[in-house]
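Record filed here:
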Amino acid sequence: MAVRAFITGLAGTTVTPAERTLLREREPWGVILFKRNIETPAQVRRLTASIRDAVGREAPVLVDQEGGRVQRLGPPHWPSYPPGAAYGRVYDRSAAEGIKAAYLGARLIAADLAAVGVDVDCLPIADVPVAGADSIIGDRAYGDTAEKVALLARAVADGLLAGGVLPVLKHIPGHGRAAADSHRALPIVETDRETLRTTDFAAFRPLSDLPLGMTAHIVYTAIDPIAPATTSVTLVRDVIRDWLGFRGLLMSDDISMGALSGSIEARSRAAIAAGCDVVLHCNGELDEMRAVASVVPVLTGEAAARADAALARRGRAVKDDPAALRAEWAALIDTGASARGAIS
């Protein structure tokens, strides 16, 4: 089976005939869903089943389900979850309670996702924001120190895995210092290497064993003055793989984002050449999907081994009482809210 090194989006709430042909013939490693693809639980279950029927295997289906501003499945059919900063506030009162709340929140998200056939969540975020940075990370972050962020990110990853859903560590090696939103423009970080190691990059190092990771479209001039991490051989090899020790499957952030330049084909080739295992393309535009599919390689060698190792951890859900978990989680969140002010 010639699985190719890309993850694709879809245009709408069903797989169109043209998309079905692409999924069948080009065989992406996975498919990612957005709000445009989501209506009701029954519809999402049909969609995920259709995706896997088209590719002819149990392909991973991804989503960004963080809580707060980034929540693709939401009311009225799914619960609303708080942003990562909510867990940081509970942690500030009691580290143990903050870690427990983060774990339980992720465990509940995993149950929501697994029920509709989604088995990969682009979470946790290990970005450490600094004063003056763009608000694109903001309250999505768990805190403003590497130690706190790493501990809460670990709890979130463990909660997802306990629910049978694979976590994606993002945005490696760190988006917290970016002064621009990489969806729109290329952030350039001019901080020295040692500061980056002890702040921005440090939260990712204790999480190097996670099965999946996503790069940051950011230039760190002290390491590579030209290419963002996604397309930088130096960043991927020397920082992500060597210094951080990340051994999981590495995917690019969305290759169609405004931070990158050049054609979709050129961006895709550059990400693979830099050392990304898989190219992520999200916007659901069919011509771009075909362009990515035409240039990415078949997933082989070490990349294929990392993909297999990740998928081997999928679906190992611990049997729990969802109602009891939700009650325990709500009590922790409510306690934190009353102590620190309302959590949005």
In short: The first helix runs from residue 17 to 26. Confidence is low (pLDDT under 50) at residues 337-344.
